[in-house]
């Protein structure tokens, strides 16, 4: 039986814990994948106890899409049960907003009391990840491919595309924190072990891919930025006194633009990733309010940042989108209230990207949609790109063929749309 791991009493990014005793001798990549699925899918990511259909081990959904057991939900909510903060993404919400995680409950029912083969119960298909074929999505966009799903990706937090090769890198909370998918949807590589080594990834928050072919990850576990090649070899770890590095995006010159959510700052990292040498870590903007998502225009060099504004009361925070020129002059901004004047619904943006025409594209978890806000000079307009088929979109990027890639934390998948 696996060794029991201690319960965490305080919310925050998961910290490395002693590994469980080996469940079986791993002799093939397929067996390794099965072991990772059992470890990541059927255990609560707070207390590491196995989920069950009833009582304290019953899996519960938070509105942000993360899952934990009923016992940890009660512990994190405190004695008055007025509200709680997600231990993974730190969003506040009311305790009454949780719900049963039906996919996990159905999987537990399939496995039965004695357990069983997780991969066979999941019925995973190579590459397809649960896609049922093209679906209408708005403005000519249709779902072309879905990747990942339960047992493959666990609480994914970031997605990035390599424009040169078409590969996709996804950061998530599995045993190996980075999954690399090929253009056809096949899984090419998994790397980024959780652990105590310098290049191990404790808790990934976002990921980007530089034009020279390196995968760069923000690690909230040890407050660092780590770079890897596509084979998973760590080439650089930057710890420049960051408070909580969060979102990041690569420039055409292979520099990295980085947000520090707790410091309220924006950084530019310049490094020679082939030799693993950091050249400069420069703060280019300060006095931001909890900046997280960030994107860089590949044509103009403009930078767009999502600020998360706190308000009184549980689950009452809002977001603000700020656009800066390449010289870091403020071009425009729009908060949730201002967007409500354009669109009569609360908008809470979680991810942002530029399309090839330089338009700002954002995800909205309230309407479960992807929205175009227009170019910086016309910002903001309101044009929905994807209006249904998403659960909790948290990541956004464009692939080499101009396909729109959306990371959906609600069903732990990557969805690729094309016209």
UniProtKB/TrEMBL annotation:
It catalyses: S-ubiquitinyl-[E2 ubiquitin-conjugating enzyme]-L-cysteine + [acceptor protein]-L-lysine = [E2 ubiquitin-conjugating enzyme]-L-cysteine + N(6)-ubiquitinyl-[acceptor protein]-L-lysine. PROSITE patterns: NHL, ZF_RING_1, ZF_RING_2. Residues 1-27 are annotated as: Disordered. It holds the Pfam family NHL. This is RING-type E3 ubiquitin transferase. Residues 11-21 have a biased composition (Pro residues). NHL repeats lie at residues 148-184, 188-231, 388-419. It comes from Sagittarius serpentarius (Secretary bird). Transmembrane segments: none annotated. GO terms for molecular function: ligase activity; ubiquitin protein ligase activity; zinc ion binding. Keywords: Ligase, Metal-binding, Repeat, Zinc, Zinc-finger. Residues 44-90 form the RING-type domain. Its EC number is 2.3.2.27. It is an enzyme of class 2 (transferase). One of its GO terms (biological process) is proteasome-mediated ubiquitin-dependent protein catabolic process.
């Amino acid at each position: 039986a696996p060794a029991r791991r201690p319960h965490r009493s305080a919310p925050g990014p998961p910290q490395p814990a002693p590994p469980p005793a080996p469940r079986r001798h791993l002799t093939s990549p397929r067996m390794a994948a099965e072991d990772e699925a059992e470890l990541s899918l059927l255990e609560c990511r707070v207390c590491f106890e196995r989920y069950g259909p009833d009582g304290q081990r019953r899996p519960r959904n938070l509105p942000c899409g993360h899952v934990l057991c009923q016992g940890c939900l009660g512990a994190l909510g405190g004695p008055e049960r007025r509200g709680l903060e997600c231990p993974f993404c730190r969003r506040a919400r009311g305790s009454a907003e949780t719900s049963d995680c039906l996919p996990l409950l159905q999987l537990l029912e399939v496995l039965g009391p004695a357990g069983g083969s997780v991969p066979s119960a999941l019925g995973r298909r190579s590459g397809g990840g649960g896609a049922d074929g093209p679906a209408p999505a708005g403005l000519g966009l249709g779902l072309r491919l879905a990747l990942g799903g339960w047992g493959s990706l666990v609480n994914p937090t970031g997605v990035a595309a390599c424009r040169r090769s078409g590969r996709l890198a996804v950061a998530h909370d599995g045993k190996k924190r980075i999954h690399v998918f090929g253009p056809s949807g096949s899984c090419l590589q998994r790397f980024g072990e959780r652990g105590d080594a310098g290049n191990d990834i404790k808790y990934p928050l976002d990921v980007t891919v530089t034009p020279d072919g390196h995968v760069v990850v923000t690690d909230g576990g040890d407050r660092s930025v780590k770079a890897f090649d596509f084979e998973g070899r760590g080439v650089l770890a930057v710890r420049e006194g960051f408070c909580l590095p969060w979102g990041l995006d690569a420039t055409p010159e292979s520099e990295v633009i980085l947000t520090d959510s707790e410091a309220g700052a924006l950084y530019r990292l310049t490094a020679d990733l082939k030799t693993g040498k950091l050249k400069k870590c420069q703060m280019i903007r300060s006095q931001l309010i909890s900046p997280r998502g960030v994107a860089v225009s590949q044509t103009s060099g403009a930078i767009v940042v999502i600020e998360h504004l706190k308000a009184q009361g549980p689950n009452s925070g809002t977001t603000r989108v700020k656009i800066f020129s390449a010289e870091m002059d403020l071009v425009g901004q729009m908060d949730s209230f201002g967007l409500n004047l354009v669109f009569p619904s609360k908008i809470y943006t979680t991810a942002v990207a530029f399309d090839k025409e330089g338009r700002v594209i954002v995800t909205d978890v309230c309407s479960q949609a992807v929205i175009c806000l227009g170019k910086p000079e016309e910002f903001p307009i309101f044009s929905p790109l994807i209006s249904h088929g998403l659960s909790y979109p948290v990541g956004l990027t464009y692939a080499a063929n101009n396909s729109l890639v959306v990371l959906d934390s609600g069903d732990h998948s990557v969805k690729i749309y094309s016209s």
